């Protein structure tokens, strides 16, 4: 009985290709009666079917050993005995099976449909491949590391699981000319990714797409068009150093080096800093660090270990107008703020070195106040540097007072003195 | 080495003492065989896992089809003289790598997303070669390597390859692979036992 076929993409059932293994057995000598998987033949052999379709199969017993008949034969599927009502004896030597509404294959090597003799011995087997054709891959994203290569990632079709081995192939070509090329290095950054290591052109667009193929059909993604220069990323900034700012208990200074691979091209690099307290998982991100290689974090907690990371976005390379792609974060670098008896302030922001005003709210207001003072009170030598010096002096004074008076309970403030 | 059952030379003259390095060679090869027995068991477990039920289930008993060029250790193997046992071990270990390669190629099509299985099959072929060479070195040191066991004919290996080829049924290919992995485990374990009897102080 032919196998049930459904869907235009379903492969046709194959004729039982058991002649070769049978030949092998004849060369070696016939097995003992009832002991061989090739004492019967299952048809179809290794069919491919859509989920939800039906299958009609037969198990035909050979004449050896004499007296072997279809009576007493039974089927199992993945080791589970199938209900007798699914089978019927077609003739003295053939047992038929009808399965409906098939589920997706349990393993990629195929579901094991086995025909057994009355005593349970295996007479023959066939592997069923039940699944779905692939859906269109989508969400292709690509990036180039230092303009030398291209790595792309994609998402498989909308429903993902096809229950069949599905092969994904990343293709690319120059938009205006050239032939199709196939990416060869797969799974570099996850299961659905590919890496093109070399021979890429700049200043000209590429077309990139993904083809998905399995036993039941194929699908192709939309084409992504890009110029390598628009998707450049780079290495994290090296040599990140974090250090204290004198005795200032709520500040740390961060310094780094521009990524060397693009140092001749990073005219407009952007940087981001993130930091967290040692035993916390919450990072705070400082965004507005443009094209500098140093920054001062302020508003930190005294006596606290901080982990700091920096990353770089090399946008604008060779005049590209696209945003560029952030690098990975640098390895965490740790440093601690000096201890203080006074409770420290909560939040923080990046301050440029040299005492220039930052964007933090407290310091912004202070800047405005100093500006007003200079104008109205003729205090021409007021500046943030002076303010920081005052804070450092305040800390030293506070510590000395603590030593004279003994350790203050936490939360109690010492008397402040105006700095004139 | 004193004369005892399982000694290297059935007509050993007690005045002849084996070279010290022979004992070391035997111990080393025995250790290798013991390690590979464990790996062979792991390979078998990995293999059945990827073929799906009923492979690997207790009581699963597919037909023990003969594999061209290699059979399981005979029931009378343990009663043979030591050099003969080692020769049979070496011959089997030499026959196994091409069979394991056939299985690996077929599994690369059936289970392409099982890199660990494919790696284990590749490593098993290398390990079988290494152990076979080590056993032959022991035989050479014993002066008992003049006769080598049967090697599978290229045509016979090709027949095995055909049975596991893409056009052959998937189920027979799975069964063939199970058989080969089983034979690998049996022969490595057998080699470990045979060498164990030669290790000084080992079981007689």
From TrEMBL, chain A:
One of its GO terms (molecular function) is cytokine receptor activity. Residues 331-362, 398-420 are annotated as: Disordered. Residues 1-36 form the signal peptide. Keywords: Disulfide bond, Glycoprotein, Immunoglobulin domain, Phosphoprotein, Receptor, Repeat, Secreted, Signal. Residues 31-121 form the Ig-like domain. GO terms for biological process: negative regulation of neuron apoptotic process. GO terms for cellular component: CRLF-CLCF1 complex; external side of plasma membrane; receptor complex. It comes from the Eukaryota. The keyword Secreted applies. It is found in: Secreted. InterPro entries: FN3_dom (IPR003961), FN3_sf (IPR036116), Growth/epo_recpt_lig-bind (IPR015152), Ig-like_dom (IPR007110), Ig-like_dom_sf (IPR036179), Ig-like_fold (IPR013783), Type-I_Cytokine_Rcpt (IPR050379). Residues 136-231, 236-340 form the Fibronectin type-III domain. Pfam families: EpoR_lig-bind, fn3. PANTHER family: CYTOKINE RECEPTOR, CYTOKINE RECEPTOR-LIKE FACTOR 1. Belongs to the type I cytokine receptor family. Type 3 subfamily. This is Cytokine receptor-like factor 1. It comes from Mustela putorius furo.
TrEMBL record, chain B:
Gene3D superfamilies: 1.20.1250.10. It is found in: Secreted. InterPro entries: 4_helix_cytokine-like_core, PRF/CT. One of its GO terms (molecular function) is cytokine activity. GO terms for cellular component: extracellular space. One of its GO terms (biological process) is nervous system development. Keywords: Cytokine, Secreted. The keyword Secreted applies. Residues 1-20 are annotated as: Disordered. Its main location: secreted. Induces cardiac myocyte hypertrophy in vitro. Binds to and activates the ILST/gp130 receptor. Belongs to the IL-6 superfamily. PANTHER family: CARDIOTROPHIN-1, PTHR21353. This is Cardiotrophin-1. It comes from Mustela putorius furo (European domestic ferret).
